[in-house]
Amino acid sequence: MSKPIEIAGPIDWPDPGQIPAIQPVHDLVVVWRIDLDHGIDPADDTTEPGDDLTVLSADERTRAARFVRARDRRRFARCRASLRQILGECLGRDPASLAFAAGGHGKPLLAPEPGGTTHATRFNVSHSAGLALIAVGQDHELGVDLERIRPITEMDRIIENYFTPDEFASFRALTETQRAMTFARGWTRKEAIMKARGVGLAGLSSGAATGFGEGSLMPRFTPSGMVVGFAIWEAAVAPGFVAALAVEAATM
Ligand SMILES: CC(C)(COP(=O)(O)OP(=O)(O)OC[C@H]1O[C@@H](n2cnc3c(N)ncnc32)[C@H](O)[C@@H]1OP(=O)(O)O)[C@@H](O)C(=O)NCCC(=O)NCCS
Is 191's C-beta closer than 6 angstroms to any atom of ligand 1? Predict the structure, then answer.
C-alpha cells in the first residue's frame, strides 16, 4: 500500500529558510506562494518587468511582451521566473536552462532530457490577481487552482452547466451571503482536478460530482476528500483567496 501524500504549504517563495525539502520527494507535494507584486504597489501599472526577464526563454519574453498592461507583463515574468527558480533548485539546474513542453491539452511539463529521459518531477501553476501558487511533487500527477473570491454574475448558469443536478439543487438552497464563497470553492476543486488531468477547460462536464468542500478553510492545505481518483486539499491561502490542490491516486 502506498504511503499517504503529505502537503507542505503554502510556503512563501523566496524563503529558503523555511524550505522543508527543496528536492522533490516521493509522497510530498510542496505548494509555493508568490506575491507577484512584491515590493511594488499593486496599482502600479507603469513598472516593467526587471531582472525576472533574464531567466526567461525567448518565447516567454515574447509572451510577456504581448500583454497590453505593464502590470500584467510584470506579473507574468515574476510568475515564470519563480517557476524556473523553484524547479532549478529542485533539480540542481540553472533556472534559465530549463526547457518546457506541453501535454496533449497544453499542460506545461518539463521537457525530456536530450537522451529522452522523462522527468519524474511534476508541477502546476495557478495565478489570480497579484498572487500565484506553484505546486511541485514527484511521480503523482497534480493540479492546483487559485481564485480570488469576487461576485460572479452567472454563478447559477455555470453551476447548472458544469455541476451535477444534486449539486445545483444544493447551491440554489444557499443564502446570498454563502454563494460567492461556495462557488469559488466548488470551482477551484473542479479546476484543480481538470488541471491535474491536463485537460483544462475542455474537460468541463457535469458528469461527476466534485463538491463544494465542507467546513471552514484553514490557511494551510487540509484534506478535503477523494474525487474521481484524485485526493483534494483546500486552503484559504490569503485573505480573499481560495485554493484547491488535486493529486492523482493519492491516499490521505
Ligand atoms: C489551463 C486553464 C484551465 C487555466 O485556467 P485559469 O483558471 O484561467 O488559469 P490558472 O491561473 O489557474 O492556470 C494557468 C496556468 O495553468 C497552466 N496550464 C495551462 N494549460 C494547462 C492544462 N491544460 N492543464 C493544466 N495546467 C495548464 C499554465 O502553467 C498556466 O500558466 P500561464 O498562463 O502562466 O502559462 C485554461 O486556461 C485552459 O483550459 N486552457 C487550455 C487551452 C484552452 O482551452 N484555451 C482556450 C481558452 S479560451
Answer: yes
> From the alpha carbon of 146, which atom of ligand 1 is closest?
12
Q: 146-248: what CATH class?
A: alpha beta
Distance CA 149, CA 213 (A): 15
pTM for this structure? 0.94
**Sign of CA pseudo-dihedral 193, 195, 199, 203:** positive
CA 188 to ligand 1 center in whole angstroms: 13
Q: Do the domains 6-139 and 146-248 sit in the same CATH topology, yes or no?
A: yes
pLDDT one-digit tens code per residue, 133-152: 999 999 999 999 999 998 88
CATH 3.90.470.20 holds for 6-139: yes
Which protein residue's CA is at the shortest distance from atom 38 of ligand 1?
200
Q: Among 80, 125, 148, 197, say which to mutate for ligand 1: greatest number of ligand atoms within 8 Å of CB.
A: 125
Q: Which residues contact 102 (CB under 8 A, 6 or more apart)?
A: 108, 109
Boundaries of every domain in the chain? 6-139, 146-248
User: What is the mean predicted confidence (pLDDT) over 89-117?
Assistant: 90
